[in-house]
Write a structure and sequence with these properties.
By secondary structure, this protein is of the alpha/beta class. It has 14 helices and 11 strands. The protein has 2 domains: about 1-75 and about 110-245 and about 335-354, Aldolase class I (TIM Barrel), CATH 3.20.20.70; about 80-110 and about 265-325, no CATH class.
């Protein structure tokens, strides 16, 4: 378990298990429960305003004195001047009428790209760990974070991305296999290049970089964790497995879908945000499939999709909710997050010992 110890010492945790940030679903209660059980709890904060972020971290620190991770998006500001929203608006119009929502709005961004303002706020809050999706921030941001004693984690979906993160100063790298739920972390080459499965990706990333590698994607039980360690991973990151925990903020319709979904029930879609993300199929992904390549640039597609999702939530219908899920949801029973960490790690160690 030397590789795992390398990661736990780096992050200041006891168990080599990380709860995925899952913006909107990961709560301070969830992150604290994972942290108090010895893992690394995380909050997805890319869409939070500064005071919201301060409040969330303040609440988290009241619940735990353990290290935690804050996750930000690193993306280019969208170019809406060259985007024609009319085809997408026309496709959405009948669905808006169905819910009595009026005219389809223009694309709008709920989350700014990582900025100097966010960097200053991050240095003020000073978490033990910060992670980034869609690459690493530009300039001297990583050096300034390191100077403040903050560890930096990046997400890679290909070996080339892992090497870029290693060269850019990441202290650890998440190897995100194609099985993972939520947004793909792809940031090099074509946006659809990051389709390598976890079993193939993890050992190749381990061989390619010097820093600890965290396996993610389709890992939901002790067998998956043990397999990741056998592939050379220093730790694992689980998202969907923690979505079903009572501490997560998940709509009841989403919880029901996670409990019932089959291995082939998900799809990778741009329709909710403008970037590829894995979710359970519903009316949104099926009826608008022909418009996958007409979505607004990330994250402004959300400005047009979110009202439909909100209407679905109000009526307790799954049709237009973003039902984020990986391919192994059925392997994750609902249970308190702290109990899940303990059970999974004990099971993985027993399997490895056997």
């Amino acid at each position: 378990m030397q590789a795992q110890q390398r990661l736990t010492e780096l992050l200041g945790i006891d168990q080599p298990i990380i709860q995925a940030p899952m913006a909107g679903s990961a709560t301070p209660e969830l992150a604290a429960a994972v942290a108090n059980a010895g893992g690394l709890g995380s909050l997805g904060v890319a869409m939070m305003k500064p005071q919201e972020l301060r409040d969330a971290v303040g609440q988290l620190r009241k619940l735990t004195n353990k290290p935690f991770n804050l996750n930000f998006f690193v993306h280019e500001e969208p170019d809406l001047a060259s985007y024609d929203a009319k085809p997408m608006q026309q496709a959405l119009a009948p669905l808006y009428s169905e819910f009595g929502l009026g005219a389809v709005p223009e694309p709008a961004s709920p989350a700014p790209a990582f900025s100097d303002e966010q960097l200053a706020l991050l240095l003020e809050i000073a978490p033990r760990v910060v992670s980034f999706h869609f690459g690493l921030p530009h300039g001297d941001a990583v050096a300034r974070l390191h100077a403040a004693g903050i560890k930096v984690i990046g997400c890679a979906t290909t070996v080339a991305e892992a090497r870029a993160l290693d060269a850019g100063g990441a202290d650890a790298i998440i190897a995100q296999g194609h099985e993972a739920g939520g947004h793909r972390g792809t940031f090099l080459g074509g946006i659809d290049r990051g389709t390598v499965g976890t079993m193939a990706l993890v050992p190749q990333v381990v061989d390619a970089v010097k820093v600890p590698v965290i396996a993610a994607g389709g890992i939901a039980d002790a067998r998956g964790i043990a397999a990741a360690f056998m592939l050379g991973a220093s730790g694992v990151q689980l998202g969907t497995a923690f979505l079903v925990c009572p501490e997560a903020k998940v709509h009841p319709v989403h919880r029901k879908a996670l409990a019932e979904t089959a291995d082939d029930a998900t799809t990778v879609t741009r329709l909710f945000s403008g970037r590829p993300a894995r979710a359970i199929r519903n009316r949104m992904t099926e009826e608008l499939a022909a418009f996958e390549n007409r979505t607004a640039p990330f994250p402004t597609q959300r400005g047009m999709a979110a009202p439909l999702a909100a209407a679905s939530a109000r009526e307790n219908k799954p049709e237009f909710l973003s039902l984020w899920s990986g391919q192994a949801a059925r392997l994750s029973p609902p249970e308190p997050a702290g109990e899940k960490v303990a059970r999974l790690m004990q099971g993985a160690r027993e399997l490895l010992g056997r």
